[in-house]
Design goal:
Elements lengths: L2 H17 L5 H13 L3 H20 L5 H22 L4 H14 L2 H13 L4 E3 L5 E3 L8
Antiparallel strand pairs: 1-2
Amino acid sequence: MTEALSGLAAAGGSAMVGAMATDAWHSARGRFARLLGQGEPALERVETERLDRAAADIDQITEGNRDTARQSLQRRWTGQLELLLEEHPAAADELRALVEELVSRQPRTRQTWVQNNVAHAGGVQHITQRGDINVGGAGRGLG
């Protein structure tokens, strides 16, 4: 896997977990399920259930432990997205668009959490002050 795709998977995992506690989650959940299910309705249902369980897990965790739980979930979903991108490299454009949309829709405090976790997830990255995430260096966009 290229460094750019690995960084995109990390951005996806971080954006996904960051969106779980926002109003954007319902539509994001459906888009992640379609992406992970690769157009197969049965797989999309399975992925929707997995995503619902992950979001419910976050809701059940006390505030003091949420960051640790989010980081753990972010790593798990990053791994899933890396597998997806290895098997279906064409999914990168859809994931990139979803990440960019989610990051732009999140409250400023959530964007900071997502950005900090993406920066620690690996890859050569540049994060601007406006909240844009550019994986692979300045001016290259996500991936």
